[in-house]
Amino acid sequence: MRATGRCLRHMFPCLVQMQPGSYLLTVHAKPGARASAFTPPLSPTATVADLRIAAPPVDGQANEELLRYLDELVERGLRAMAMNHEEYVKGTCYAAVVAADAAASAAAPTTPLESGSGGVRKKAAAKKASSTGAAPAATTASTRNALPTRLEIRLVRGSSSREKTLLLLCPCTRAQLAAVLERESRE
């Protein structure tokens, strides 16, 4: 999964992870549209997410509509992803990277531990990890517990300009959130 992490980290530079479950999304808002939508659909190289907002730029109406629209969009996407993960991410960059990583992992030959000094170090590290009680499953569970329990979106910067920064507190990983934004921006 190393390749997956590296590839996904460089995709969607408009979405930055601050800590588990906390993300900053850079948006270029265009108020006064007929309907709220991404323009064009979000791509993996986008440094800013372009959004049309169905509200006038008066008295914070566009900001309220932006937050409402993104909240609805992300919540709908996460619900759909939870129902059928593989079908939902099909056709997204997330699915392509995960598939490539799985193919590379399957093609990589597995070698047994050698009895040289490298094998001793690996065995010592494994013994140390088991003596401290650290297990990979426990790490995954603690990461899940660190994620927020509900979705929350706040405006951090740009209340009176078109360039905005939003804070998304979301019970998902960055890769899942990027897949949701990419998929929902196409619809």
UniProtKB/TrEMBL annotation:
It comes from the Eukaryota. GO terms for cellular component: cytoplasm. Residues 127-143 have a biased composition (Low complexity). It holds the Pfam family DUF167. Residues 109-143 are annotated as: Disordered. InterPro entries: DUF167, YggU-like_sf. Belongs to the UPF0235 family. PANTHER family: UPF0235 PROTEIN C15ORF40. This is ACR, YggU family. It comes from Novymonas esmeraldas.
